[in-house]
């Protein structure tokens, strides 16, 4: 497997696998390696004095079972055909960014976040999903729990369950207003596993 990440646990010492899936790393014989690759379960392997280690990564089926919010409801990631990317609220919560918009930078492919000012009250960045247009505004349509909003600067990261970005045909349900893409924000709601009345 090409490009798998190999890290020595508790250090910044790391490497990636070559074209043939091989790697070489210098570390102590008692160290533990952390092997990760997108779509596979991350594994920890103890070296235990071995000079050569064969590692087989297992598919992360949980990624395929992930539920993604789309314009007309929810869908499993494995059955999704449109251009939809999503990020969980926990990732946004852990971000040191000053607001929700800025915390999305680098987490969703194709999303451009431009912080124009650091002045309190005016620090909402511009967001572009489908590139800059020639005419008018290139801002995406922002929908929070089914209601259109102008921006998400006042959102508390603790309240966010997930954020999905819709492009191309998957955004068509919102009409011409979605020409620049759609950002769907789902907030946390109460959940009951089993509710019994007596």
Automatic annotation (TrEMBL):
Keywords: Cell outer membrane, Membrane, Receptor, Signal, Transmembrane, Transmembrane beta strand, Transport. It is a multi-pass membrane protein. InterPro entries: CarboxyPept-like_regulatory, Plug_dom, Plug_dom_sf, TonB-dep_OMP_SusC/RagA_CS, TonB-dep_rcpt-like. Residues 77-182 form the TonB-dependent receptor plug domain. GO terms for molecular function: siderophore uptake transmembrane transporter activity. One of its GO terms (biological process) is siderophore transmembrane transport. It is found in: Cell outer membrane. GO terms for cellular component: cell outer membrane. SUPFAM superfamilies: Carboxypeptidase regulatory domain-like (SSF49464), Porins (SSF56935). It comes from the Bacteria. The keyword Hydrolase does not apply. Belongs to the TonB-dependent receptor family. This is TonB-dependent Receptor Plug domain-containing protein. It comes from Bacteroides eggerthii 1_2_48FAA.
